[in-house]
Structures are given as structure tokens and as C-alpha cells.
């Protein structure tokens, strides 16, 4: 094994060109940590926020990447065998310690979830953080039940598509939005019952379909659309604030009585590896392999093309998940 590896390093916030490929020493795992040979890594808005200087508590230089998929390369405690397929996510990855944009990464064992699958690495790399967030948003954030209705704001994002899959699998009626009229077809093909063009006034069209409003709303765009999502939700319904595709996540001069519609509940969700049980991950991977479900399109980039991948992420150029490949 080589003593050095290729990694994408960010020295300071800036444009996509600020991500530079470098040769770094292969990191050594301390007790309680695991070294992973990274095969694929998902790209997330979190990393875009870090690159743009919008994230707090990040130290530089830093290898970005809040998730990684690959095999165990070394576990000094002997808990996980070498070659075990694993995903890792969150817990400071790509922020307080180096993350998944590299050929190897070292993470706390508490952030590692084992699995077994023969799916291609780029397919596997698209799953962990997206599935964790979609699953947690619908369960912890919304407590969505069979037969209920769900509005997804930002439906063609990777997270929006995954949430649609999980909600439809649960037996919910799904309404989902896109700002691009050409992407309405993609929403319908993915199983959305009511694709909606987002012109900023979605609530009125939602209530044409469901006069009392939806049972649940999943806000993935951010604070600019949150009031309209709340207005589309029925009394005693719940809106979960999970995503920030707009890069805006605060409400200036928040006055709850004036901001929140009467009787509508507002929740939030952010999760960790512990919020994705290993059996949930394995079940969804098996169902993807069997062709029973899909979390949406995957767009793979070699690590050498990380700058272009970040440009495409920032511009919202693709429907679905962007994934980096080290092999």
C-alpha cells in the first residue's frame, strides 16, 4: 500500500477552483477510529456551504466530504474486519477533521455503518446521507403515516427524490415542487402524484388539490419558501425544515404569532449516522438492487473532476445525486 493518497483540499472558502487535488499522507487511525478506503462519496449542500464560507466551526486547510462509502482498511481495535463494506457520515467529517473527498479517510467508529451489496460503487455512494436525511425527516421530523399527504419543496433535489420514494413506499400522496417547468416530467416519472411549478405561490395550488391543506410539508429550499409551505399545510399539520437549497436558513425578526399560521406545527431535522439504523440501510440497498425502488438519478465524477462537480452542484445542473469516484 502507498503511504500517500490523492485528496481534494480546500485551503480557504472560495469558488470551485479553490478545491485542489494534492498528495497527502495516508492517515493513521487512532483507537476508536477506522480507516476507510473510499470508493465513492456523495456531494452535499453542506460541502457547498463550507466552500462558500457559510458554515460555522470549520478549520482549514480541510478535505471536504460529510460522507464516504468504501471498505474498512484498518481498525486498530479489531472490531470491523478489513474489507468490510461500510458507509460513514457526519460527526465532524469534512469540517473538524478531513472527510470523504479522498482515497482514504479516518473516522470515528461510531460514524460507520456496515452493509453488504453488489451494487456499483457510484450507486452505493449516492445513498447514505441522502437516505439518512430523508428517513429521519419523514419519521422523526414529520411522523408521516400511511394515507397522509406530503408536500416536498425542492422536489428534484437528491433529497427531494429520496423523500418521494420513501413517502410513496409508505403509502402517502406526494406533491412536489420544481422551479423548472422542464423538470415537472421528471417528478411525475419518479412517482410524484402532483408535480407543481414553484412560482412562489404554491399554497394556493395545493389547496386547489387539497382544500384543507397537506398533512405534512418538507421544506428543502429554505426560509424564502417556508411561509408559503406553512400556508399550504392544514391545521394540526406539520412542516419539517430540513434543507437549505437557497443557502438561506434564518428568519430575520422572527415573530411566531405573525409568522406561523394558526395551528400549524413547525419542526426541524438534522441527523447523524446513529439516525440511520444498519437494518434500514441494508433494507433499502437490497430493494434498490432488486429494482423495487430508486432514490433517483446518479451523476458520477472522477475525483479529478471535483471542481466541475462542485460547479454543477452550485448551479443545480442535474436532477438527482452527484457522486465522486476515487477509482
From TrEMBL:
Domain Enoyl reductase (ER): 14-324
Keyword check for RNA-binding: no
TM spans (from-to): none
Keyword Kinase applies: no
Alphabetical UniProt keywords: NADP, Oxidoreductase
Top-rank taxon, per record: Bacteria
PANTHER family from the UniProt entry: QUINONE OXIDOREDUCTASE PIG3, QUINONE OXIDOREDUCTASE PIG3-RELATED
Protein known as: NADPH:quinone reductase-like Zn-dependent oxidoreductase
